[in-house]
């Protein structure tokens, strides 16, 4: 029997001189495919994603309808509702006010939230747990209740200090900072729990003071959480309606309030166009943020 015939029959071949060959021809196995269970899991995950994204997809699709009165199927598609939203001064002014308010609230809320998280995580003092629960209350208190309570508190403060607070931009910023602090505390607190405290101790043992350790060691390790906190704080403040509604002054409206006022007298796809623009804007912000800091690490 030749070497070729022995290899085809599954018998080890031999080299010249009678030495056994090092290679064996293994029988061909069945091609591996994806099992039915894996296909079912993938199909289920796809359906869940479609269910969660369907409102966004529907709003964006609706913004291109040609009909002023929403009908299915649409008679055609147009971009005129985006032009109508652009020409509306209430939407433009509301967008600018919301942008300024969200930026100020995000910066102020992140600064105070990081400081509070560090104090609660690194120090032990009486009332520490109570203070942490109080700072997290805006996450569980209904927005309309928080708005009315803030409005009544501002009225009392105006009577005591004889200054205008309700209807001012400063009053709005303070209220939104209180709204954004809990988001920063949740994200930064979770990151602080995963940081090894011995790294900060090593820096102090090498001669770094408390502030130098904070700036050179602690904050760089918290950078992903801080960036995510800024992003979420901006979105929460930009989209807020309940807390803002009792506190805005005459002639001053944020974008969510401008949308609500438009809906009182109109029911056309202009609102869908404004909402689609918000979705795209916030999506771009998240993509840019994820380019520099992976949000999956902190979310």
Tell me the radius of gyration.
30 Å
**What is the overall silhouette?**
globular
Number of strands: 0
Specify the biggest β-sheet.
none
Count of helical stretches: 12
| Structural class assignment | mainly alpha
Q: Measure the end-to-end span.
A: 67 Å
Percent of residues in helical segments? 55-70%
Order of helices and strands: HHHHHHHHHHHH
Poorly predicted spans: 1-15
Percent in strands = under 5%
Structure in a nutshell:
The protein is mainly alpha-helical. Helix content is 66%, strand content 0%.
What is this structure's SSE topology?
Blueprint: H1 3-8, H2 36-62, H3 80-87, H4 89-122, H5 128-135, H6 143-161, H7 169-194, H8 197-205, H9 210-221, H10 223-239, H11 255-263, H12 270-292
Helix pairs in contact: 2-12, 3-12, 4-7, 4-10, 4-11, 7-10, 8-9, 10-12
Describe this structure in words.
This protein is mostly helical. It is 66% helix and 0% strand. It has helices at residues 3-8, 36-62, 80-87, 89-122, 128-135, 143-161, 169-194, 197-205, 210-221, 223-239, 255-263, 270-292. The longest helix has 34 residues, at 89-122.
Supply the key terms.
299 residues, mainly alpha, disordered N terminus
């Amino acid at each position: 029997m030749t070497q070729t015939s022995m290899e085809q029959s599954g018998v080890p071949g031999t080299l010249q001189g009678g030495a056994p060959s090092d290679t064996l021809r293994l029988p061909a196995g069945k091609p591996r495919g994806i099992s039915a269970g894996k296909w079912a899991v993938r199909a289920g995950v796809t359906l869940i994603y479609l269910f969660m994204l369907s409102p966004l997809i529907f709003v964006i699709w609706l913004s291109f309808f040609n009909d002023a009165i929403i009908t299915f199927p649409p008679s055609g598609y147009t971009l005129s509702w985006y032009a109508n939203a652009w020409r509306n001064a209430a939407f433009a002014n509301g967008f600018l006010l919301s942008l300024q308010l969200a930026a100020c609230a995000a910066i102020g809320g992140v600064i105070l939230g990081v400081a509070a998280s560090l104090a609660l995580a690194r120090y032990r003092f009486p009332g520490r747990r109570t203070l942490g629960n109080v700072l997290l209350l805006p996450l569980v208190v209904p927005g309309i209740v928080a708005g009315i309570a803030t409005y009544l508190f501002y009225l009392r403060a105006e009577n005591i200090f004889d200054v205008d607070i309700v209807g001012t931009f400063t009053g709005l910023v303070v209220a939104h900072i209180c709204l954004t602090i809990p988001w920063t505390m949740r994200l930064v607190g979770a990151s602080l729990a995963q940081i090894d405290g011995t790294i900060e101790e090593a820096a102090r043992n090498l001669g770094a003071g408390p502030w130098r350790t904070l700036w050179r060691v602690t904050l760089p390790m918290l950078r992903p959480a801080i960036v995510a906190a800024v992003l979420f704080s901006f979105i929460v403040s930009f989209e807020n309606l309940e807390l803002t509604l009792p506190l805005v002054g005459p002639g001053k409206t944020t974008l969510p309030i401008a949308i609500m006022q438009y809906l009182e007298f109109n029911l056309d796809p202009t609102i869908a166009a404004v909402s689609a623009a918000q979705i795209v804007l916030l999506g771009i912000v998240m993509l840019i943020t994820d380019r520099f800091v992976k949000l999956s690490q902190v979310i």
